[in-house]
Each structure stands twice: as structure tokens, then as C-alpha cells.
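Continuing the batch. This is chain 6 of the set; chains 1 through 5 are on the previous pages. Same settings as before, nothing changed between runs. Recording input and output for traceability.
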Amino acid sequence: AEPDAFSNDPERHPALLVRNAKPFNAESPPSLLTDHFYTPNELFFVRNHLPVPDIKTEDHRLTVETLNGKTIDLSHVHFEGSDVDPTGTPYGASIPIEKARGNEVIVAYHMNGVDIPRDHGAPLRVIVPGNVGARQVKWLRRIIEYPVQCGICSPAPNTKVDRDDETLEVSGYAWSGGGRGIIRIEISVDGGETWSSCEMKQDEKQDLDHMYAWTLFKAEVKIPPGVKEFNIIAKAVDRSYNTQPETASGIWNVRGLLHNAWHRVPIIVKD
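Output for chain 6:
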């Protein structure tokens, strides 16, 4: 049998929701996601394309290449990783030179105050706030900013609630690309006919034009009278007044990429 290329991958937290074992891809559990503004490293989602390299920090070298003093016009900066496929080709991605020159783009070696874990890029990782990374880059032409998005983490879909409880607590997150801060998050329980504003928690050190962290929210909603089930709907608005489409009909794609329609969570009411 051929040796398992993933046998030296790091151990992971058992609470992670594994979507693919090899290469390892896992989600943070929604039930724990809003317990902390800064997601603990061990609960942070993992998105790998290849086996995880095991690099000794003291032996690692970061190489910055130039073109021997030649004067040229640069349009992009290319970043290359140490994770390689069976042909020996490393994973790589590039961003426009104007983006790379901004103060927001960094080469990071810490995550939440400690050395970056192996699953998240140890010992060094480039961070490009506001941009989505292209997977398995080929023929790169552009990197697209994420649209504004909003997700409900609690309650879970198809949660059963007692009608006598009268109210229900809702919590979740919102985020937008390009450093655009979230200015409003709203919840509806009547199909979008009426909306109520949510209480928001944001990083106070980031202003609305440079807000790369998410916004957490919570709200208490009334259980609609006379229904056996209903949907909780959440939507957000960012600093540039971008909002979310009501449905995915205009943004549908087979892989579900950049899906940012209103988030709906069905709830069952018990008498």
C-alpha cells in the first residue's frame, strides 16, 4: 500500500464539524461560534488543500525575490506556500500590487497571541483582510472581495420551542469585504414583512472603514401567535449600504460560492 501523505497531520479538536478528512476541512460548531468574539484557535475553521507541512520554525526561511535591479511595472505579488501536491508543485496565490502595498496586508506569525498552529499556516502566513483567496490558483486574473453576509448560529435549524415561552433568543454574526464595517443587522419572524434591529458587538479598535473582524449580534424575538412553524430571517447592511439579496436566484452556482442571501432558520412551535 502507498504511504498515507496525511499521516503526519496535526490533531484537531473533536468539536470541529469535519466536512472532508483528507485533505482536512472542518467548520467551527455553530453552537459555540458566538461564545467568543475571538474564536479560540482550536475551534477555528480549517480549510486545507494538501497535507499539512511540519516545519521547524528555526529552520524556516522566507525568501523575497527581486529581478536583479531591473526596472519593470509590477501588477501583482505572488505568495507561495510550503504545501506541495504529488507533482511537487506548491500551492500559491497572488494579489494586486496596490493591495499588497496597503497597511492591512501582513505576514503573520501569531494567532490570538500565540504561535500560529500548523493547521493555520505555521510558522508564517500572509493575511489579506477583505479578500477571498482563490483555491488551486490557475491563470489568475483577479481576487474578488466578499459581499456582505450574515449568519444565524443559534437557534439551530428545526429547533422546537414551546409556545408558552413567548420569546426566543437569536445570535449570530455578520461580515463584509473590503474592511467595510457592519452598521445594521435586522431580524424578521414574519417572512420579511417587518424587521427588528439587533444588538451588535464589534471590535472597538477598528473603525467602520477598516473593520476586518466580524460583528456578533443577538436579539430576542417574539414567537408568532397561531403558527406551528416559522422562519427566523437575518440580514445585514455594511458601511457602504450594501445589503443582501432576498434569495439566491440571482447568485446561484453549483458550488454555492459567495452565497449571501438572507439567512433563514426554520423553527417548530410546540403547544
